[in-house]
Amino acid sequence: MKKYALVLIGLLAGCASSMDEQPYEINHQQFHEKQDEHGNKLFAYVVSVKAKNRQNIDLDKRLTRSDVKRFAEQQHFEESSVLKLRLEDQAVEFLNKALKERNYCQGKHEINDVVWRDLSVQLRGRCL
Predict the structure, then answer these.
(1) How far apart are CA 41 and CA 104, in angstroms?
(2) Do the Cβ atoms of 68 and 77 come closer than 8 Å?
(3) pTM of the full predicted structure?
(4) Are 50 and 24 in contact (CB under 8 A)?
(5) Is there a smaller number of Cβ atoms within 10 Å at the N or the C end of the chain?
(6) Could you count the other beta carbons within 10 Å of the beta carbon of residue 12?
(7) 91, 47 in Cβ contact below 8 A?
């Protein structure tokens, strides 16, 4: 009986993870660096995502409850503050990695500004 329970849990976990689709796909990352008139190091980091097509409902066929539920649960990047915050957190991780790889800020750094466009986020800051 315990074996069947373990197999069932394994199958359910596998199904749940296979249904998880990435809500967005990152298609571009870019690091910019410059110095201001006082010699301070400045940076900007841009992360963009691909636009996803919206799933349409075929009104000519009979809809099931699961079809309606799936359509209602769709998240679109442009309209979801949760997805945008998730991308912003990822952008901070990517920025930290880029600064370390380039050895750009020897000590600490700060992000002064976050600029959003439809499908991208730009983090602006300076080395301390």
Answers:
(1) 8
(2) no
(3) 0.67
(4) yes
(5) N
(6) 10
(7) yes
Task: Order across the sheet with 120-127: list the strands.
Answer: 26-35, 41-49, 120-127, 109-117
Sign of CA dihedral 75, 81, 84, 89: negative
78: three-class secondary structure by DSSP: helix
Q: Pick the closest to residue 48 from 13, 93, 88 (CA basis).
A: 88
Place of tokens 């800051």: 125
